[in-house]
Amino acid sequence: MSNPGFTCITCRVAFNNADLQRFHYKSDWHRYNLKRKVVEMPAVTAEDFKQRVLAQQAQNAEAEKDTATFCKLCSKHFSTWNSYSNHLQSKKHKEAEMKSKKKLETDVARENAKNREKGLLEDETEEDENKAKEAGATAQSPSAGRRSKPQEAEEDEDEWEDVEEEALPVTRCLSA
């Protein structure tokens, strides 16, 4: 077996030509082994180096998930929690928050105005007032807690049918 003329003593690898040896000297694997040699540690194989690189990349990705934050309002990415918290206290972020709130308020007001024009919002407020009056009257009457189950079911069905016929505006709370 002939002895190749080009070798890397640090990584303990032989090469067939000088170009491959030069390419190897520029590689991260060779640099890693040089640093290990300086601190008198043994060299690692190419396969072991690849595994270490992959493990380090996975660890970095996991650490980035924990520390990286994103401000949706400003569309900015922050690599550390500290820089993100500083951003939240900044004047620009607070101005962006105010602009966002004002825009939301104007959108809601615009939607209410559209609904008033269509007559939807006024009808709902009258219905809500009537329901509140009925609820107050039933709470004060002595027979309020004595409704029979079939009667409750019929009333619920009537209310459900009314809801199916009406379209709910965007501004109406569903829990009401």
TrEMBL record:
<feature type="compositionally biased region" description="Basic and acidic residues">
    <location>
        <begin position="94"/>
        <end position="121"/>
    </location>
</feature>
<comment type="similarity">
    <text>Belongs to the REI1 family.</text>
</comment>
<dbReference type="InterPro" id="IPR013087">
    <property type="entry name" value="Znf_C2H2_type"/>
</dbReference>
<dbReference type="InterPro" id="IPR036236">
    <property type="entry name" value="Znf_C2H2_sf"/>
</dbReference>
<dbReference type="GO" id="GO:0030687">
    <property type="term" value="C:preribosome, large subunit precursor"/>
</dbReference>
<dbReference type="Pfam" id="PF12171">
    <property type="entry name" value="zf-C2H2_jaz"/>
</dbReference>
<keyword id="KW-0479">Metal-binding</keyword>
<feature type="region of interest" description="Disordered">
    <location>
        <begin position="86"/>
        <end position="176"/>
    </location>
</feature>
<keyword id="KW-0690">Ribosome biogenesis</keyword>
<feature type="compositionally biased region" description="Acidic residues">
    <location>
        <begin position="153"/>
        <end position="167"/>
    </location>
</feature>
<dbReference type="GO" id="GO:0008270">
    <property type="term" value="F:zinc ion binding"/>
</dbReference>
<keyword id="KW-0863">Zinc-finger</keyword>
<dbReference type="InterPro" id="IPR040025">
    <property type="entry name" value="Znf622/Rei1/Reh1"/>
</dbReference>
<dbReference type="InterPro" id="IPR022755">
    <property type="entry name" value="Znf_C2H2_jaz"/>
</dbReference>
<dbReference type="GO" id="GO:0042273">
    <property type="term" value="P:ribosomal large subunit biogenesis"/>
</dbReference>
<feature type="domain" description="C2H2-type">
    <location>
        <begin position="8"/>
        <end position="30"/>
    </location>
</feature>
<protein>
    <submittedName>
        <fullName>Putative zinc finger protein</fullName>
    </submittedName>
</protein>
<keyword id="KW-0862">Zinc</keyword>
<feature type="domain" description="C2H2-type">
    <location>
        <begin position="71"/>
        <end position="93"/>
    </location>
</feature>
<dbReference type="InterPro" id="IPR003604">
    <property type="entry name" value="Matrin/U1-like-C_Znf_C2H2"/>
</dbReference>
<dbReference type="GO" id="GO:0003676">
    <property type="term" value="F:nucleic acid binding"/>
</dbReference>
